[in-house]
Inverse folding.
């Protein structure tokens, strides 16, 4: 099973090339390996190649993998990111098991995560999800409301507000992709100036199909599933 190692190397090379092309230093772009629908064995293998950050969309599936892998030595220190939608009845599980949440898009969810974050764990690292292109996903706060939400979330003591996250609808062509990601970058800069917090340093955008454009526009964290783990088959 060397293909996961090869896939990971290929993605790392794409990130390095994109950074070079955009005159950015490669250590400013983090790779989040999106392992949804893949098993703990695959995560374990990618972790053995040195990958540390993993993203999960489905809470229950993620928690099962996290629990299993936490019990094994070489995967006990992985960093887990929740990148899927969170319903109110799932906030407790998320706050107890994940290190990061990228999908905070309303204050109520942030407040619940804040209240439920266990005292023995460090603050939960969060990004606000913004519906940057008004696309069909419908998740994410409207760009015009992002700053107001950020100011409220920043007050919650058991959360650390780290940045913004976007999932624009797929568009064809580098220039069109950059145009959408540039909107997110501009909003990120605007919020950062107002918050004036050194911890607000994360712009989570770019996936398998558009990571080069996202890096060009200033992404600091690309979330890559397919190019590492292969195509997904959904079973209900
Ligand atoms: C699935 C998913 C990804 C990874 O997408 P790929 O196209 O497989 O790289 C990234 N972010 C989110 C929020 C996802 O749901």
């Amino acid at each position: 099973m060397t293909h996961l190692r090869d896939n990971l190397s290929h993605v790392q090379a794409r990130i390095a090339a994109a950074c070079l092309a955009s005159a950015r230093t490669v250590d400013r772009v983090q790779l989040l390996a999106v392992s949804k629908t893949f098993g703990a064995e695959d995560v374990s293998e990618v972790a053995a190649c040195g990958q540390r950050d993993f993203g999960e969309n489905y809470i229950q599936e993620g928690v099962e993998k996290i629990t299993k892998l936490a019990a094994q030595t070489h995967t006990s220190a992985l960093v887990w990111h929740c990148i899927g939608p969170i319903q109110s009845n799932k906030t407790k599980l998320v706050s107890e098991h994940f290190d990061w949440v990228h999908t905070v898009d309303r204050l109520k969810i942030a407040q619940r995560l804040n209240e439920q974050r266990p005292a023995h764990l460090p603050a939960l690292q969060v990004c606000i999800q913004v519906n940057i292109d008004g696309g069909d996903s419908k998740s994410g706060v409207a760009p015009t409301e992002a700053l107001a939400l950020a100011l409220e979330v920043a007050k919650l003591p058991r959360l650390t507000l780290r940045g913004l996250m976007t999932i624009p609808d797929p568009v064809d062509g580098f220039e069109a992709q950059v145009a959408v990601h540039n909107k997110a970058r501009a909003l990120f800069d605007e919020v950062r100036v107002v918050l004036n917090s050194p911890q607000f340093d994360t712009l989570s955008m770019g996936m398998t199909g558009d990571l080069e454009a996202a890096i060009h526009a200033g992404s600091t964290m690309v979330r890559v599933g397919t190019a590492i783990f292969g195509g997904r088959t959904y079973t209900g």
